[in-house]
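ok trying this again, last paste got cut off
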Amino acid sequence: MPRISVEDSGLPLPAPVPAVPLRLAHGVLKSLLGAWALAACSAEESAAVEEHLGTCGVCADEARRLREAVGLLQRSETLDLDPALRTRVLEGCLDRRPPRIPVPGWATAYDAETARLDALLQDFGDGEWQAPVHLRWFDGDAATSRGTTVAGVIAHLLAVDGLVASALGLDDPLDGAAAESRTPTERTETFWRVSRVPPTRTVRGPWREQSHAIVRAAAFTGSGAGTMGVSYGDVELALRDAMLDRAFECWVHAEDIAEAVDYPYEPPAPRHLHHMIDLAARMLPAVLAARRQAGLAAPGPGRHLVTAGDPGRSLRLEIEGLGGGEWFIPLDSPAAVGSAEREVAHVALDGVEFCRVAAGHVPPVEAAAGQAGDRDAIKDVLFAAASLSRL
């Protein structure tokens, strides 16, 4: 049985033992002032110091100065780390560390984005790897989506990055007949289908090894390799553009993953974002022409309206904020972006907003854009930008 408390026994409580004050020499008390200011003294020592301060003016002045100094050292805000601190530190390291292998400028965005995504994945547990993720893109004029997991997203990146790896002479993650799938969608669906079990956290190792190998191969092949062709099945991109495309998709899907696990994720560095926007702007004329041929965009002005001296119509795309700049998008033919043409419309968009339209994450009709001029041309270009997205 538990022992009976003295309070329940009816007996008088024992008298408290009176505390015996410490009697310390002046030198000892003066040496305790720093610890007292930091609240590091015992109760008896604090009582002795405080009693001494009432009679010694020199020690009282010293104690006041020490307490003021301690106040300057103390933080008034919470000591919890900022959730974005790790991201900022990693960005600073990636911006400042000299690479052991000189990476071509057109490959630095891919190098940085894969490293940022890998840092996000580093501390994920099994639960985060199986968190549901919704991949979104535009198909024609309608938004569509596909459900998968965090591990499934990394498997998707591994499969599509294999196109660049194959062009550089590296191993393709799809073996045998599966490697015949050329488009990103086909490769992803094939990779998911041939996997005996749903992707798990083990997919991170092969994906990161492949991204390292791609960067090393690009560095060793030299800057001239940027013109090498990379086939996406229905379109071919120069290696330098394919690397930008892969960097863009890595960032977009990293945001998908961060959203799924409720973690903050910042956009790419402005210089990298600018190159991604430039790639999208250069691809817009061909996409717009294909949409027009498929009946998804307004027809051109007609041959009888275009004379030999007519430079043709264009839309001025003004990108504000990160990665900003101006691009003139040809409307009547897939000519080179920026050629001298007659401006009939003007669209102003934030850089990150434009990229999210191009990724199929923001519907074109909901884009916060400043618009002036030909409304049909503006609509066609915004929908063409959304059509750049894919699984």
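PB: full thing came through this time. Residues 36 and 42 are 9 Å apart (CA to CA).
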